[in-house]
Design a protein that fits this description.
51% strand; mainly beta; Immunoglobulin-like; single chain
């Protein structure tokens, strides 16, 4: 049977279906990048939530980094499995090198992991965060 002009709706995600993973990091020549991802243990679902990524030291946000925390409003369909929501590059750290952590949130969930500091490019410039959001999949639509 054909559904003319009717789009299938994707159900909302339910409690326990999505879990935040520990932020993964990757270094480049000039910055350190942390990735915020979630795992969907169920079928595709629609989500609307705020997600953040914060550089912390000694349990507190590092205020001297411009754009810290990085914030993204997430709205769309999350397919089964792992989905990267966004990443945030951190560049030009000329301060102390004590241990840093990347603390991610997604709705009520929080996860954190080690976050290496980037190289100092210029003590005359500020340290900054630059988020990059990844597109979520569009919900499936019934064929006309």
């Amino acid at each position: 049977m054909r559904r003319c002009g009717r789009a299938r709706t994707t159900p909302s995600c339910v409690a326990g279906q999505l879990s935040l993973t520990v932020p993964q990091t990757q270094g480049t020549a000039q910055q350190e990048v942390a990735f915020v991802s979630i795992r969907n243990s169920g079928s595709a679902c629609h989500v609307m939530a705020l997600s953040t990524l914060t550089v912390v030291q000694a349990g507190k946000p590092v205020r001297s980094i411009r754009g810290n925390p990085a914030r993204e409003k997430i709205s769309g369909t999350i397919r089964h499995g792992m989905t990267t929501l966004f990443d945030a590059g951190w560049s030009n750290w000329c301060g102390n090198r004590r241990a840093f952590r990347a603390r991610a949130t997604f709705g009520p969930e929080t996860a954190s992991g080690p976050y290496p500091s980037p190289v100092c490019l210029s003590s005359a410039s500020v340290s900054r965060r630059q988020p990059v959001r990844y597109p979520l999949q569009s919900p499936p639509v019934a064929a006309p």
